[in-house]
Design brief:
Helix content is 46%, strand content 18%. It is of the alpha/beta class and 329 residues long. The relative contact order is 0.13.
Length: 329
Amino acid sequence: MNANENQRILYAIFENEIEMPILDITHPLFNASIDHQAYHLSCLKSARSIESLKKMPSFILNIFVKMSNVDNSYLSGMRTLLYKLGPNLSPGIKLSFRDKWAVKQTSFMGLRIRLRDLCQRQSEILLPQLKQFPDRNLCFFNIAGGAATDSINTLILIQESEPELLKGRKIEINILDIDTYGPNFAKRCIDVLKQPGERFHDLDITLKTIHYDWSQPDALLKMNLERSDWIQLCSSEGGLFEYGSDSDIIENLNHFFTNSPADARITGSLIFDRANVNPGYLGFTEFIGVQIRYLGLEGLQRILTQTSWVLEEYHEIENIYILFSLKKA
């Protein structure tokens, strides 16, 4: 389908033969769905909006909670994908009324900014390694990865800037998740992107799904041992560091450290601590029942003292999200 004269939208088949756009953060319609000024103003207004909402009649409050689409105290991987697509890339999808409403909300723009910025950081990490080691294969471990939009789009950014760096080496995306819908869709996206004439044609890319409970991270030990000579990047966007306990995070970091190469990296997103997080975000998540962790940068650094990882770089988004990368001490 033509979004405009120059840019196509690629689709992959989801469950029940539903066509879903393949999320490409370089697409003009994705970029057009990000307005930093509008998002900033929305964040400033959100605290007042939550206070006004709390004063409304209970039946209206119940409607609002239902429209927020929270399942089991978190947003599912495919629903998160929908909000990342945004209003410009989702019109062709048959949506419920509440999804149509939610996908247009400025507050969800933060998910698109978070994804874009994390992918840019991951490509910055990998490009020098790919240049230095042309004979090493590349492996992603994506914890609670859902549809693996950050891993796929990191490859898209590398392919756009220096495509020769991906040729002639094995590339593997491992999605470690208890969900099956997101990873199944990710597999179909890779299949489409590898077709003749598409971005990943002639690239040796494999996507694997591993049923993974981050409270039992032993599977990670075995997997990165088998790929100990590969370039390795472990990521968790909107996952482990936003929902996992201290002990879960520590165990996963230590397990990944054990068998990964010296230049391995970890990237992820977390939420500001309660004292400094945007009050509107805090009020919203508590109001609709999301069991998010307000870990904050100090919380992450406290956890790192019980590991052999150190903070390499971090980046803040509107007193809500902190994106970070870790390297071996």
